[in-house]
Design brief:
single chain; alpha/beta; 3 domains; about 20% helix; globular
């Protein structure tokens, strides 16, 4: 995309919304309904504000908005959306939007504004955001001042970030504006938002997300068309599947960021799931389709005149997703399926192994665990799985779990071991130095004032002698950010 992320409002659209293969219905879990929150970037930020205000009884706990703007900012006008709500914030009629909010609440078009008084709100604007100017977020803070106590609002705008979701370890350089619009600014924005909304959290999972499941769910259960894809995604920690009471957080991508366009990068690499895994949070990632204008959420009325009210089609659908996943009781789901049997390994190569097992009656799919870490990204519906990316001449252990239609896993099978062929890999070398020293030593390169690791192209931050990074050499002239034992 050669123009800004949030809205190009092109007259043409690609009429493809993604296939619903292997999708399941969202499970009904034991959810604390008083702890439901929402966050979003760009069009997802505007949508998060809409959901927070219109459904304040549901999202009473709070919201995080990144590069969004005030509720009903566009007032149903594409001119307002692309003008004052993005580039010319001085024209945003904040007092009028506050009056509209109060009037709609009185009429019952949105929930009572009194629900917002106990909310927490986290706002983020990159200081060099050229798509949604920081002044738009200033207007959002002013808007929230009419409904949310100032002590409950955090507004961070001191990072020189372009228009993107910000992380501390994944994405493009902080000043980059390009797909997938996820930038490594050495700041864990997802963690900061969740900590403000919920208070003190357990440390995030710093390793592999082994205990939970990524679920592609059936969005068509809630809505067909209206700019939404047939399927969405969720991350569900194992404890939540097993009956532990959990919390729900809805994550809304920006324009040009749905799974069709950036695959699962927003779902997997924006930092939310690592906190969910250790704090019993279910993450729901609704998805637009490419039929939506610029693949955006509807925050100016491209789909429906009531887009910002409780009757807006996209609003209704997302609320229904939250209601369904929150509809379980305190009783754990029925006993999971029996553990698979007959697990064997075969077909070893220097980098892969085939794992096979006997079918389990009633299983909808299977999950495969290598050395206790889940390896498959999508549900496995066959009775075998090819595990790749293995090290040569190395012995691994695999177990398999059967998954039923409610996404409940069985106990693990007996382990099957196997050894890859080839010669052992050379010892891993690690180098800890300034980014300047890495580049002069040939382990990294510089682009636009930022440093990137040779081979992996991982962003290391600013090119200077003050930023220190540890690089791990995994192959000839191939380095990744990490550490060595």
């Amino acid at each position: 995309m050669k123009t800004r992320l949030l809205c190009t409002f092109a007259a043409t659209a690609v009429l493809f919304g993604g296939a619903a293969t292997a999708a399941v219905n969202l499970p009904q879990l034991n959810i604390d309904k008083t702890q439901t929150t929402v966050s979003g970037l760009s069009s997802g930020g505007f949508m998060a504000a809409q959901l927070h205000v219109a459904y304040s009884a549901t999202f009473k706990k709070g919201a995080g908005i990144v590069a969004g703007g005030p509720f009903y900012c566009a007032e149903g006008s594409i001119t307002n959306a692309t003008g004052r709500c993005m580039a010319s914030p001085a024209g945003i009629p904040t007092s009028t939007l506050v009056s509209t909010t109060n009037n709609w609440a009185t009429q019952g078009s949105i929930d009572p504004v009194a629900n917002l008084q106990a909310s927490k709100v986290y706002l983020f604007s990159g200081s060099i955001d050229s798509t949604v100017k920081p002044g738009v977020m200033d207007a959002l803070k002013t808007y929230y001042n009419s409904f949310v106590p100032a002590a409950n609002v955090v507004y961070k705008k001191d990072i020189a970030a372009e228009h993107a979701m910000i992380t501390d370890d994944y994405g493009s350089g902080c000043s980059t504006k390009a797909s997938p619009y996820i930038n490594d600014c050495n700041f864990d924005l997802a963690g900061a938002m969740l900590a403000h909304l919920y208070g003190t959290l357990n440390p995030r999972n710093a390793g592999t997300l082994a205990s939970g499941n990524f679920v592609e769910f059936n969005q068509s259960q809630f809505i067909t068309g209206h700019g939404m894809a047939p399927t969405g995604w969720a991350y569900i920690p194992q404890a939540c599947t097993a009956g532990t009471q959990c919390r729900v957080h809805v994550v809304l991508h920006g324009c040009q960021q749905n799974v069709t366009l950036v695959q699962q990068q927003y779902v997997r690499n924006t930092g939310y799931n690592r906190w969910a895994d250790t704090n019993n949070m279910v993450m729901i990632y609704p998805q637009t389709s490419t039929q939506a204008t610029n693949s955006c959420w509807d925050w100016w009325g491209y789909d429906n005149a009531n887009y910002a009210k409780k009757t807006g089609p996209q609003m209704v659908a997302i609320k229904a997703m939250v209601d369904q996943v929150s509809a379980g009781g305190t009783t754990p789901p029925p006993a999971a399926l029996p553990a698979p049997t007959g697990v064997v390994t075969s077909g070893a190569t220097a980098s892969s192994m085939t794992i096979s097992w006997s079918a389990v009656t009633g299983a909808a799919s299977y999950n495969i665990y290598r050395n206790a870490n889940k390896t498959n990204a999508l549900p496995v519906t066959a009775n075998s799985y090819g595990d790749t990316g293995l090290a040569a001449a190395t012995t691994y252990s695999w177990t398999v779990k059967a998954v039923d239609g409610n996404n409940a896993e069985s106990a693990a099978s007996a382990a099957a071991t196997g050894t890859t062929t080839g010669t052992p890999p050379p010892p891993v070398s690690c180098y800890t130095a300034s980014n300047y020293a890495h580049t002069t030593a040939g382990r990294a390169y510089v682009l636009g004032g930022y440093t990137y690791a040779n081979g992996s192209a991982q962003s290391m931050g600013l090119w200077n002698v003050y930023t220190t990074t540890t690089l791990k050499k995994t192959a000839t002239n191939y380095y990744v950010i990490g550490s060595c034992p």
